[in-house]
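My current task is to audit a protein record that another person submitted. I need someone to confirm that the token line plausibly describes how this chain folds. Take the sequence as given and treat only the tokens as open to question. This is what I was given:
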Amino acid sequence: YYNNTKSFLEEYNKDFPDALANKYRELFHVSPGLYLYNSWKSSIAYLYNLIKALNSKGIVLEYIIPAGGERADAIFVGNTVSPSLMIIEMKGWRTMEIVDDYSVIADNKKEVNPAYQVLNYSGKIKYSIEGIENFNINSMVILYNILNHNKSMDGIYSGNEQELIIKELKKNLDPGFDPHSLATFVNARYRQNINLFEAVRKYHLDIKNGAMKALASEGYGLYSEQLEPYLEIINDLLTGTPGNYIIHGGPGSGKSLIALNLLLRSSAMGK
């Protein structure tokens, strides 16, 4: 879904999640599922209240991230002086504790750190989409069901921090909105990123030290389904737990990227 926020405010009602679900079925040929549908009901209701405080902007919901199957919850497009994107990851968790740069414990379950998630999205969009080289790209995480969260990472907002969120949105997206920028973004084509091995050569010391965020900022971060086996294997190496692992996937699924990250990190660990 994409539109200007003025039209979104006019369209939004209790049936909006149903309309979004229909678009989802048309695109993916499968129903979104009850969990995703319910998350739309709560997250879009929260976004609606933010949008009312903004001047007209562009908005994209459930944007498919290039070179993978993950989707950004919401992306705002604005700024007539210098086209800008704000990528937003909405989390409906009731509790969240940060473990490290890549993991959190959310609702008593280990999950990918959403701050890493949006950094990865930003890199993928910046380096894998044609025609937006002059766009400024920023990101934030909104924990809309958590109040007064004790955070230790920038760019993560609690549900009761609407004023701070709106201030950040205005800072990045004002002044104005050019519909051409929205059209350029949503109609842009995927392009091949810089050579993977060039990126690894550039950031091999960061990867060896476990700082994969450097790769994420260049568009080569691991997606959630890639990061989970990576972290599991590294944890087993740290604890000396023996095991065999099979990473399978089709061409372009990221097997080589996982393997290179594991090779550099394990060699730095002396494993």
Remarks:
- The two ends are 47 Å apart (CA to CA).
- The beta strands are 2-4, 58-64, 71-78, 84-91, 96-98, 103-106, 109-112, 136-143, 156-158.
- The mean pLDDT is 87.
